[in-house]
Amino acid sequence: MFYLLLFLLPLFSIANGLAVLSIDVGSESLKIAIVSPGKPMEIILNTDSQRKTPLVVAFRDGDRLFGEAAVTTSVRFPEKVFMHFLDLIGKDLNSPIVKQYLTRFPYHKISVDKEKSTLLLHHPDGMSFSPEELLAMIIQKAKSDAELAAGDGLSIKDAVITVPPFFNQAERRSLIRSVEIAGLKLLQLINTNTAVALNYGVFRRKDFNDTANYILFFEMGASSTVATVAAYQTVKTKERGFVETNPQLSIKGVGFDRNLGGLEMQIRLRDYLAKLFVDQSKLDRSKLDSNHRAIAKLFKEAGRVKKVLSANSEHKAAVENVMNDIDFRAPLKRSDLEDLWDDLLGDRLTKPIKTALESAGISREQLDQVILFGGNTRVPKVQQILLDYLKISDLSKSVNADEAAALGAAYQAAYLSKGFKVKTFIVKDANLYPIQVDFSRDVESEDGSKVTRAMHRTLFQRNNHFPSKKVLTFSRHADDFEFSVNYGDLKSFLTKEEIEAFGSFNITQVKVKGVADSLSKNNEENKEYKGTRAHFKITESGLLILDGVETVFEAKVEEMVNSSEEPSTVGEALAKLGNTVRKLFSGGGDNDTKVNASETGDTSSSEKVEKQQNASSSDQQASNATDNKPKIEIKIKTIKDPLKTEIQYLDQSVIESTDVDLSIKKLDDLNKKDAEKIRKDGLKNSLETFIIETRDRLLDDEYISASTEDERNKIMTVLNEASEWLDYESSTAAPQAIQDKLHNLMVTAREVFERVKEHQARPEALKALNEILNISRLFHEGALNVSEDEQIFTDVEIKTLGSLVQETTVWLDESMREQDRTPRYQNPKLLVRSIQEKIVSLDREVKYLVNKARITPPKKRKVEEKVVENNETLQQNVSSEAEEAEEIDSEKEEETTPKPLELPSSGESDQTHSKPSPTVGDSHTEL
The pTM is what? Predict the structure, then answer.
């Protein structure tokens, strides 16, 4: 299915390391998807072999932990583990969301960075990190996992990241900063709901037509609930000069509750379990609340129980040693949880749907389908409430509740990347919050006095589609001025709680400079000031940008126009061509008169017509002469003069590039430390493995026979010392110290290991040497027995082989006798290396002679062939009787001719030597 929809046609080769990445960032976990050459988009497995990665990072004993290792650490050392920090992105210390976070996780400490005015989460070991830096660490780990999963040495630099649709401008800028710190190039921030809707649409593009199809997507995730009305239909677009019909996704309406999610359910269940534990143990609740480890254990158990009771009606909560060695066990029913969540699963659950439908301007009956996604939509009570509210019989689960957003973002990443070509699917996202420009202007009152009046201009309305551009003209400002960009009316569709958690309603304050200078510079009679224009746009990431400010003037310009010039447009050219054709076929419009006169035979009438034609021709020439004279036309020319602006962000302190560089360096230092730790752990494992294996070997009979007791005791002593050092001192040692320790152990045990290795390899080496010796002897004997007429080897070659065979035989006999007299615990006299050298010498000499035998013909046969070749013409003219006699002589000759030498195999040749050696003229001769 993927290959039908996703045309992965790499524009660059795989060697260029091309791949794109998508990360679906949730408050509790994240999913990673990649698109690489030759592969469809797919969810990857992390280093824990899981498709979902917890959004958790821990610091313990100098180590940085991610994923399941960090989650495990959170139970024992909760204050050293950071989780659920996505909601803190772009917030200040006074935000209700920050206060709620500290209430839910009381073991964390948060302060404000005095220089950057950003939040800082503190670690007990003295470290501190901003939420953006923590998120950047997670993104870097995701990038590393993706590159590992892609393989082939692919490098991933481009990414699409999902973002909650309710994130405002400050939150989006903070998330973009995290991606920058992580070292990725951001292709786009895509809203989570839009990514899911895109994932749904790309697999059903053939189901859409020019009639809008409305689908409600309902998400209930870890921390929020979002309802989205999406419309699908086909539209005609012009691309590369051609009109194409493509499917389009339009977000029509969105409703949300950013505090209604699985986390709130889990927190309530944790507090309920704490109450049951206090009732059972009779402990003081304040003591339990102050025990961070106990609270963390109950929190983890609450998450497990919530998942189990989503599929079962009854279950038992169990936690060992909550505190003071007291275990906790309690039976629970699904109805108990539903009672705890009663206010969450009522009107609050359906309100986002109502808001989404109202903002989209459609009713429930117009919905074609309702699709669920998000892990907490699996709660049975949630599904039942939705069925009752929407008055439908079924809820669709046609997208993967956990992975749809990551896959939709991966499709968008492939679409935006230059390295892949995918089918176009137009996406029109919706701006959730109205944005307006506020400024002041001096106006005259009724009494003639000047009064400063506050002005408001809506820039982007609620549910405006983006990406989008808008231009605002300030027509009455003749001097430098300023304006502010703020959010519009939010109270009409946001609750009181959401308004309080929203943050600043002001976005930026803009000072425009150089207006007066521009007016002075362009103060000419022919120029008219048309105002100061500010260009705004909302990017594909939903980020508001001031694209520039300029003064605009219109100038009247005189231009010389020649009427005989070629037409400037296609329409004018066609009109001129039509007139010419009409004149050619109608005789300039006088043919009717001429024909009528001719028919009557009235020559005088004909002469009159001719005179009229001549006069008309003269008038036309005069007219053309007049038209060919240059004319002066007045044209309006627009002149734009760029202005300087100073932008001050009001919703969040500006993070300078130097501050970003400091964060990048902080993460680089952590990455180097992690790499050093990985190297150190690898060396420690190697050292431990060597110690264990060597101890076992020294107890083996083969190693005992190859060593003395003193040697074994010495090695064992060194091993014990190294083992003790590894257990108690290696944690603080540098990697080089561990490597040196391993090297010293290997040097100490080397002699014994080498002896055993020699004893193990010697029999096989001797077998090989004896085989090559036998082959060499046979070859030498065969070469000696060849007649002089057939001999192809020189005396020196034969003598050299014989001497080598004799010397090797003598050396082998003497070495074997000496080795037999040497005890196994002493260094051997006959080394495998020496045996191999003898084998190589014999093999080289025999191969040389074998190759010579292959390509060299016997001497006598070569002479006979030459005689036959010289008398070829005579042989063709002999009689049949002579031919028969020649055949008989030839048969006799063949019987008396000695057979060629059969060459024994040297051990490596793949030729069979029973065949005659080929002659020089053979075309299939192998060299």
Answer: 0.76
